[in-house]
Amino acid sequence: MGNSSTPGPQQKRFAAYLDGLAGAAGHVDRIEPLKAYCKGLLLPGERKSVEPMAARLAPDNVRRTHQSLHHLVADAPWNDNELLAEVCGAVLPAMQKHGPVVTWIVDDTGFPKKGTHSVGVARQYCGQVGKQDNCRVAVSLSVATGSASLPIAYRLYLPEEWAKDSERRKTVGVPKEIQFQTKPQIALAQIRQAVESALPRGVVLADAGYGVDGQFRAGLTKLGLEYIVGVQSSMTVWEPGAEPLPAKQWKGQGRPAKLLRRDHQHQPVAIKKLATALPPSAWKTVTWREGTQQKLQSRFAAVRVRPAGRDFERAEAHAEEWLLIEWPRGEAEPSKYWLSTLPPQTKLHPLVKMAKQRWLIERDYEELKQELGLGHYEGRGWRGFHHHATLCIAAYGFLIAERNRFSPSVRVGNLGLSAPKRAPDFYPRGARPSRAA
Questions:
Q1: For the chain, percent of residues with pLDDT exceeding 70
Q2: Nearest to residue 139, comparing CAs of 195, 206, 194, 203?
Q3: CA–CA separation, 352 vs 338, rounded Å?
Q4: Cβ neighbours of residue 96 under 8 Å, at least 6 residues apart?
Q5: pTM for the structure as a whole
Q6: Alpha helices, DSSP H only, in 344-406?
Q7: Count of CB atoms within 10 A of residue 9's CB?
Q8: 115-132 burial, b if ≥16 CB within 10 A, otherwise e?
Q9: Which has the higher per-residue pLDDT, 180 or 418?
Q10: Which residues contact 43 (CB under 8 A, 6 or more apart)?
Q11: Quick check: helix, strand or coil at residue 82?
């Protein structure tokens, strides 16, 4: 960490970047706290909650700085979406210097949390621990080039038990317009907003938690977006070349039948059954990118199928899509499945490479959590949860922009941002690494 009184080029760019975001603060009194908060997130330190950051930023005036930062994040009514739009406008051009937007990545991330009073906390699946646990979950949308991605939308998933509890909603300040939505519904709303904002379009990527939702997939198609989404092995499709039976022929009486049919001999199959029945010649080894130690490769097959989900309630069959299957060599059965609306002429390698592009958001969340303290906010309210996340994304956006200016080694803590030394006898509440996030 540098202590020079003369700012270097990177520090000047950081100051200019924050000046560009200041308008979204909504009030002149919030500008300096907003800049300080972002700086605090980028300074070295194991804990990025309000008090430890205040201690790093102003060790001689911790209490006043703490109050200022806390008011900004917990109480001030600035608009998260407006600030994220400013971040996108500042960072995306730097990303595009190395290539166009290729994908829009949908994901969600969990934050283990004890107790029941913090907004959105419930027993649900938590990806961070890989099982059901007490946690809260946020849904995000990121835009990505071939090598970088940036979250542009972020919203807490509010479980139904919370959405229907007026007392708890009031206590933590959930806005009246926020009603229960599934995660795919939240993601689709974020995507719709991105389309309306005229952002450069990309192929939508999502895991099976979203891909199994037929309304989510249909919503993407209605918006004119292509997708590659994970699906579960139990999902049913019509085998290549097959489709549901047509409606019964009209016999001259009553209303003509319109709905598609199935019978005992004509049924769709689970995609796992279809995959295991494919001939050995269908499987090809594909390398999709360089890993940290070796090339990443596996065996894949791709066939054209029609999804079968509730098509007996439809007058027309679902359109054909790609079913992409991964079956690693040596494994007893296929490990992953995707559906994709990429064009029929798409070759296997680009199909695989696109499906695997979701690794970018995994890298983003790792840094946002470990380096920028995305899960460190200690307040219980709706506004504070989102404000802290937005400011984390704003600080992370500067790192992304810097890396795309030919500085791939840029990391939190080595930006040359200066801060006074902390008083040796001051140890802020919440700064101990042993404290749970």
A1: 93
A2: 206
A3: 10
A4: 145, 200
A5: 0.91
A6: 348-355, 359-370, 382-403
A7: 9
A8: eeebbbbbeeebbbeeee
A9: 180
A10: 1, 53, 56, 57, 412, 413, 417, 419
A11: helix
